[in-house]
Amino acid sequence: MKNLITRVGTELIRRRYQSISELISNVYAALIHDLEERKLIRNSPFDAAPCRGATLLDLDEEGMTAFLRRAKRGRGFPLPIDATSFELLSHLNLLDEDKPTHAAMLLFGKQPQRFVMSSEVKCAHFHGTEVAKPIPSYQVYKGTLFSLVDQAIDFVMSKINLWVGTRESGAEVPVAYEIPQEVVAEAIVNAVAHRDYDSNGSVQVMLFADRLEIWNPGGLPPSLTLEKLRHPHGSVPRNPLLAEPLYLTKYIERMGTGTGDMIRRCREVGLPEPEFSIFDGFKTTIWRKSSSMTGQVTGQVTGQVTGQVTGQVDPWVERVLRACELKGELKSIELQEVAGIRHRETFQRNYLDQLLWDELIERTIPEKPKSRLQKYRLSKKGKILLEDLSKNKK
């Protein structure tokens, strides 16, 4: 021991402890400090902590450029459109010693779920009022937070009823969803933005015949209660580094008005007030109109979009087929608008391709699938399905 003390010399620090418990406490604190210094554990919030193993090469340059355009247009973001990725990330406080944080990866990562596996969003549609197999439609969405929110909203809006009016009062045809889109969007954005990312659970969006449920890991901040959500309250984001970019792109506000706006909009359209609860996480329940059961079709129609076992058809499917029946031939963008899907790639991958696969519609130029003149029309199988739907409604 003397040799050891002599060798370390002035680097040795001597301390006297009054008890074993005091010694253990100090050793534990020193160990924690050492692990933090070596980045083996973190002492900062999840969104601000460095994303282990990630580099700036794991971030999507195009996604950051798109963000700059949207933030500048929506909120007057100060950085120029040609700002470098490093400038953007630094401005948003998304770097830790020049390395991307978890927030940077979730917002702009090429493959966010490679680093934060539980950040995916699971969406399911049940034709009844309980969770039951087989599940008619089930999707697990991956991507950035912006993409996750968009895809989850599109999933719900494509499966709820849509009222289409006439042009009696103007050139535009009035449309109204069974649940206002801003209500669905607010609930989903809240779940993604304010969830507990330390949890291994994923956000779940479940649409039933009588309600929509959105569940996320985590509860409320200490300063908020379930009752306070129903009244004006302060904004207390769990993940502020995620909330800021979502605010800049107008996905959220920063006034604590979101839940109040949901309640108000549901009242305006005659829906019951949304319910908020905490049980193994936070859950928002949005009630549907009592007459919102989807139509039945006689016989079995193959394919995911029409329900392989139950023989039921999603509202968006019927809307698209009716539009083709009425107008004859439609472009992809026109079908996308009828379906109520906001983003082209999502519509192409999850909706249009499925209609083609199920042979409910067909291309007008089948030998050139990617032709700029390409349109789509109702197929024989699609006509049969519409006839069955019409008979069933009589």
TrEMBL record:
Family annotation (Pfam families): Fic-like_C (PF21247), HATPase_c_4 (PF13749)
All residue ranges annotated as the Filamentation induced by cAMP protein Fic-like C-terminal domain in the record: 317-379
Superkingdom of origin organism: Bacteria
Organism listed in the record: Legionella pneumophila
Signal peptide as annotated in the record: none
Name of the protein: Transcriptional regulator
